[in-house]
Amino acid sequence: MDMPDTASASSPQRRALVVEDDPAIALIVETILGAAGFAIDLRETGEAALEAAPADLLVADLTLPGAVGGVALSHRLRDRKPDLAVIYMSGAIDDDAGPDGAVAGAALIGKPFRRARLLAAVEEAFASRPAA
Asked: Where on the chain is 4-aspartylphosphate found, per UniProt (predicted)?
């Protein structure tokens, strides 16, 4: 599968901010995206994610502990970095229905998911994100 602009000799490594409170799911996402060439920053809450360094890709659970959920987080981070690619994850929905208030161009995956589905969502999110 062709990955979007992953690390190469001529370009900096892409950064992914993964926001997931379930350690098993976070590890799966970290492993898959790390193997695809992303530098990974794991956070358990939306509040912690707001303190992270800027990323190229946000992968966030819709339901997070604390006051900042996945959709609100994506809006706040997109305000800072308009070309941020976004993937929402949730165990409570399927891949066909997006969450209310989702940022433009966001991909959605239901949990559990397979490696191929996550990588397809990465491609979709990068292809659909707004221009900087």
From this structure: 61
User: How far is Cα 70 from Cα 19, in angstroms, rounded to an integer?
Assistant: 8
Residue 35: both structure tokens together: 């193997």
Mean pLDDT calculated for residue range 112-116 = 94
Residue 65 has pLDDT above 50, yes or no: yes
Alpha helices in 8-132 (DSSP H): 23-35, 46-50, 70-80, 115-128
Distance from C-alpha of 5 to C-alpha of 21, rounded to nearest angstrom: 28
Write down the domain spans for the chain: 15-128
Q: Class of the 15-128 domain?
A: alpha beta
User: pLDDT class for 7, splitting at 50, 70, 90?
Assistant: very low
Q: Would you state the pLDDT for residue 9?
A: 46
CB 73: neighbour CB atoms within 10 A? 27
What is the residue whose two structure tokens read 């799911």? 25
CA torsion through residues 111, 97, 65, 105, sign? positive
86 contacts 16 by C-beta, under 8 angstroms: no
Which DSSP category does 29 fall into?
H
The two tokens of residue 64 are 């997070």
